[in-house]
User: Which sequence fits this backbone?
C-alpha cells in the first residue's frame, strides 16, 4: 500500500479537499455559554486563477494571479438534499508568498468569527499540518487542519478574545463518496480479501 502524502501547498490542499465532507463538530466555550456539538455537510468547490474572483482580489491587492487559486466553502444540513445556502458560504482566494507555496495569505470574503472580509496568514509544517491565523477587529482566530488520509481530515480551532481563549472547536471530517466510487472500493476490498 502506498504511503499517504499530505498536500503541502494551498492549491494542493484545496484540490484534495474538493467535494462533500461529513463534519462532526464539538465546540467548547470557556465562558458561561453551554458547549455545543453537531453534524453538517461541508461542500468545497475549487477554481483556478482564471476565475474572475481570483482576478478581482489579486487586482485589488496588486499581486500576480500566476500562482493564485480559490475555493468556495458552503455548509448544509446533513438531512438536506437542497443545494447549499449561499448565505452560509465563504470564498477564499490563495496568494502564496513564493513559488514553494508553503506559506501565503488567504483573502476571505467574510470571516468565520466576524462577518467582515479578512486576510489570513497560513503556513504548512514539514508533516503537512496547515496553520491559518486570522486577526479580526476584536479577536484572533487560529485553525489547524491536517489530512489523516485521502478521505479523513481533522480541524482544530481556537478563538482568542481580549480576555484570553474564548472557545475551542474540534471537527472530524469524512469524505462523502458517490455510490459508484463506493461500489469500486467494495469490489477492490473484496478482491484483496479473496487474494489474501
Assistant:
Amino acid at each position: 500500500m502506498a504511503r499517504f502524502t499530505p498536500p503541502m501547498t494551498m492549491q494542493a490542499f484545496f484540490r484534495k479537499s474538493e467535494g462533500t465532507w461529513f463534519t462532526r463538530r464539538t465546540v467548547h466555550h470557556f465562558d458561561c455559554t453551554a458547549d455545543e456539538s453537531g453534524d453538517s455537510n461541508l461542500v468545497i468547490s475549487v477554481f483556478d486563477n482564471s476565475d474572475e474572483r481570483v482576478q478581482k482580489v489579486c487586482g485589488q491587492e496588486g499581486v500576480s494571479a500566476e500562482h493564485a487559486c480559490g475555493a468556495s466553502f458552503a455548509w448544509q444540513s446533513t438531512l438536506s438534499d437542497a443545494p447549499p445556502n449561499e448565505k452560509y458560504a465563504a470564498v477564499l482566494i490563495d496568494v502564496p508568498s513564493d513559488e514553494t507555496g508553503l506559506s501565503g495569505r488567504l483573502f476571505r470574503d467574510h470571516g468565520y468569527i466576524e462577518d467582515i472580509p479578512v486576510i489570513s496568514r497560513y503556513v504548512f509544517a514539514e508533516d503537512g499540518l496547515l496553520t491559518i491565523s486570522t486577526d479580526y477587529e476584536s479577536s484572533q482566530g487560529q485553525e489547524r487542519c491536517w489530512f489523516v488520509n485521502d478521505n479523513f481530515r481533522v480541524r482544530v480551532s481556537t478563538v482568542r478574545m481580549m480576555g484570553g481563549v474564548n472557545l475551542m472547536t474540534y471537527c472530524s471530517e469524512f469524505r462523502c463518496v458517490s455510490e459508484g466510487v463506493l461500489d469500486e472500493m467494495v469490489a477492490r476490498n473484496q478482491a484483496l480479501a479473496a487474494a489474501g
The mean pLDDT is 88. The beta strands are 19-29, 36-47, 69-76, 89-96, 103-108, 118-124, 130-135, 140-149, 152-161, 164-176. The domain at 10-195 is CATH 2.40.128.20 (Lipocalin).
